[in-house]
Design a protein that fits this description.
330 residues; mainly beta; 30 strands
Length: 330
């Protein structure tokens, strides 16, 4: 949700494996964009038959001009950046036989030129400019599962971060600056700006709790998160054996204004490994759970939508594989 078409006015963009749909705040379709793989447009945006496995698609703004691009953040077939019209701007090279798979891709301004660079986690770190020119490369045995770009020390210059057993901080060339031990093993996290805070926090669903970590790796808040662990869930492994329990795959959150004259609440959508369901939680700023619902689908994105009836409150949009959901306080 934002200004994504280069003209004033609020837009809703739903991006999927084959393309994106732009909607107005009422939900009416304005534009449909199909990604052009290998020089031709893909099939139906809503078709489940994927012609390329490029990972989750994120709406980004490379130039800061209010006109969106689409970043496929990496999977078995690599990663790619598409223009607002669906044309390939950049893509990863074909994987060599002895290489691993692309782990993750992100974009952000690393040199303060007001344009975003492309950072790839693939057997180390590779950095490209917006035209696809390689700027630097740091080779390592493995790539980090998720990378983001953020100013970690408040000096006005962005760094590259990732989290696993340690919070890793790299400079603009991808070189390691420091590694900070963290409380658990966090293979996935979500960068979230908390109201009133200068720096964003890392949102992590871990061990039945929702954790907030600062950019020094310290846990600064803990919210109890029931239904974030399913110890008695039975999955069938590749060999036919039963596997009990499941893990959180990823969680994403947004601060949302639900009630006038009250602080914003935190809405979090969590999805899991091996379960095609997601859990929606709404918390007070202090961490009290106000609302919880199990959604009958895998959901990977959440956003706050300002109401158009003159009220100063927002509704909640949740994007799932089969259905987009809208929630509002009534």
């Amino acid at each position: 949700v934002g200004e994504w078409d280069g003209t004033p006015g609020l837009d809703i963009v739903v991006a999927a494996n084959h393309g994106a749909i732009q909607l107005d705040p009422s939900g009416a379709r304005i534009k449909e964009t199909r990604f052009q793989f290998h020089g031709k447009a893909s099939g139906s945006i809503e078709d489940d038959d994927q012609s390329s496995m490029l990972g989750n698609v994120q709406v980004v703004d490379m130039e800061g001009d209010g006109k969106c691009e689409y970043l496929a953040r990496g999977s078995l077939d690599g990663a790619a950046l598409f223009s607002s019209e669906g044309k390939v701007i950049w893509s990863t090279d074909e994987r060599k036989k002895d290489q691993g798979f692309v782990q993750n891709v992100t974009v952000g301004d690393l040199d303060n030129d007001l344009s975003a660079e492309i950072v790839v986690s693939w057997d180390g770190i590779q950095i490209f400019d917006k035209t696809g020119k390689k700027l630097s490369q740091v080779d390592e045995e493995y790539g980090d599962s998720k990378i983001e770009i953020v100013d970690t020390d408040g000096d006005g210059k962005n760094e590259i971060i990732s989290v696993a057993a340690n919070l890793k901080i790299r400079n603009a060339k991808g070189e390691m600056i420091k590694e900070i031990p963290v409380e658990g093993y966090f293979s996935n996290y979500f960068l979230l700006q908390t109201p009133g805070s200068i720096q964003p926090s890392l949102l992590v669903m871990y061990g039945g709790q929702l954790l907030f970590l600062n950019l020094n790796g310290d846990v600064v808040s803990r919210f109890a998160a029931p239904l974030s662990e399913f110890d008695d869930t039975v999955q069938i492994g590749f060999d036919g054996d039963e596997i009990r329990g499941t893990n959180v795959y990823e969680a994403e959150g947004v601060w949302i204004k639900l009630v006038n004259e009250q602080p914003k609440f935190l809405a979090v959508i969590t999805n899991f490994a091996g379960i095609d369901r997601s859990v929606l939680d709404v918390f007070t700023p202090e961490g009290k759970l106000l609302y919880q619902e199990i959604l009958p689908d895998t959901c990977s994105s959440i956003a706050a939508l300002p109401e158009t009836d003159g009220k100063r409150v927002e509704s909640l949009l949740v994007a799932c594989e089969a259905t987009p959901w809208k929630f509002a306080l009534r």
